[in-house]
TrEMBL record:
Name of this chain's protein: NFE2 factor
Record SMART domains: BRLZ
Coiled coil: 64-112
Organism whose genome encodes this protein: Chordeiles acutipennis (Lesser nighthawk)
Domain BZIP, residue spans: 46-109
Record-stated family: Belongs to the bZIP family. CNC subfamily.
Source organism phylogeny: Eukaryota, Metazoa, Chordata, Craniata, Vertebrata
Swiss-Prot/TrEMBL keywords: Activator, Coiled coil, DNA-binding, Nucleus, Transcription, Transcription regulation
Gene Ontology MF: a single term: RNA polymerase II cis-regulatory region sequence-specific DNA binding
GO CC list: nucleus
InterPro entries: bZIP, bZIP_Maf, bZIP_sf, NFE2-like, TF_DNA-bd_sf
Length: 148
């Protein structure tokens, strides 16, 4: 067998600028600090790599936070819409019940009015043949339904 290589890494240069400063300094200050530090090409590359990775890490954290906030906002909106839907369904049920009551009242009044009216022969008007019509102006009229 051949010789096995160990997991040893090349020594990492120690930079005279703290990693937090590398990441957080404004670009002008970062470049000025690099110029003052008189770094080798490898150290400059490392500093720029640290800055790039740090900026990316911060951007990823902000992105994740915005995503969580957006999801929370969507959950709130979904809950609000669910409550609104329930309210509208209750209102619809009330309106349907009120309409059914009005229709029953109209049928009862129509039957009473038609029972009180007579045709030319003195017979009561039949609900199958005649109906009452309420005009938009509130005037009530008798109309033939065309049956019988």
């Amino acid at each position: 067998g051949g010789a096995r290589r160990g997991g040893a890494r090349a020594p990492v240069p120690v930079l005279p600028i703290h990693p937090d400063a590398i990441v957080n300094l404004p670009v002008e200050d970062f470049n000025a600090a690099l110029g003052r530090a008189r770094l080798t090409a490898a150290e400059l590359a490392l500093a720029r790599d640290i800055r790039r990775r740090g900026k990316n890490k911060v951007a990823a954290q902000k992105c994740r936070r915005r995503k969580v906030e957006a999801l929370a906002g969507l959950r709130e909106e979904l809950a609000r819409l669910g409550r609104e839907r329930e309210r509208l369904l209750r209102a619809r049920g009330q309106a349907e019940r009120a309409l059914a009551a009005l229709r029953r009242d109209l049928a009862r009044v129509t039957a009473q009015v038609l029972a009180a009216l007579r045709d030319g022969d003195g017979n009561p008007l039949r609900p199958e043949t005649f109906g009452l019509r309420l005009a938009p102006d509130g005037e009530l009229s008798l109309e033939g339904l065309g049956g019988g």
